[in-house]
Amino acid sequence: MPHVTANGVRLFYRSDGEGQPVVFIQGLGVDHRGWAAVARLVAARFRCISFDNRDVGQSDLTPEPYSVADMARDALGLMDALGLERAHIVGVSLGGAIAQTIAIEHPERVDRLVLVTTYTSGDPRGTAIFEGQAFLRARLDRLDFCRVTFPWVYTVRDYRREGFVEEMMRRTAENPLWQPQEAYERQVRATLGFNSEDRLHLIQAPTLVIAAREDLLTPMRFADVLVARIPRARLHVVEGAGHGVIWTDPEEVSARIVEFLEE
Q: What string of DSSP letters covers 31-98?
């Protein structure tokens, strides 16, 4: 799959399906493959474009500090390079913060907006969680890091699925594109520096907020703020799911995305 240079950063991307373009934006420490289960289903109706954010996967490492706004400019540069004046934008977690920024600062580029298990600002508890995870990541081997941190991503329901969490840990620990620690820490700082709460009213695109009832990393209170402050926003809650909802419930997430985009 190809690369483009966007906002001065070489980004890896892939495109699947045909039709109206949908740009999928991933979260902290995850490359474009994190969207595979959802994008595979959405690609039956739309052109699905997923990419590696800067500092992850096969995109450039960028050693200088950066912000969510910089990452939003990367995504817009990707759209420019692909000749896309407008697209549907779907973002998860940190990717949802990037998607919010695009919709706030460049409303003319967004047809419809989908925000999945995302947040509106950093807070002391979130800072403690993500700084703690960065601390552990630097000191534990990959499998032990997964064992310690996956309870924040997956729920009791997920752990009761025989072999599911164990398989996700194995895949993560054996990832040949494991993000370098310095890059992970830069993305953590960008994540924690984000705040959209006073600007959400500027989003013009019809917006679907997909939340997970048992999400510990981006709790339901963020979804409530998004729906309350974004004009024309609506909420869909995936029961029993946690922050890893795009991996545990891809059928439900993709069905809600397709239903919303086809309205």
A: -GGGGHHHHHHHTTTSEEEEEPPTTSTTSPP--S---HHHHHHHHHHHHHHTT-S-EEEEEETHHHHH
What's the pTM value of the predicted model, to 2 decimals? 0.98
Judge whether 154 and 165 are in contact, CB under 8 Å.
yes
How do beta strands 9-16 and 47-51 pair?
antiparallel
- Within 10 angstroms of residue 204's Cβ, the number of other Cβ atoms is 15
Q: Distance from CA of residue 36 to its chain's centroid?
A: 12
Phi, psi of 57 (to 5 degrees): 60, -130
Compute the distance between CA of residue 24 and CA of residue 35 in angstroms, rounded to an integer: 7
**Residues 128-157: what's their mean pLDDT?**
98
Quote the DSSP letter at residue 208: E
CA distance 195 to 197: 6
pLDDT digits (tens, 9 = 90+) for 162-173: 999 999 999 999
Task: Please count the helices (runs of H) and the strands (runs of E) in the chain.
Answer: 11, 8
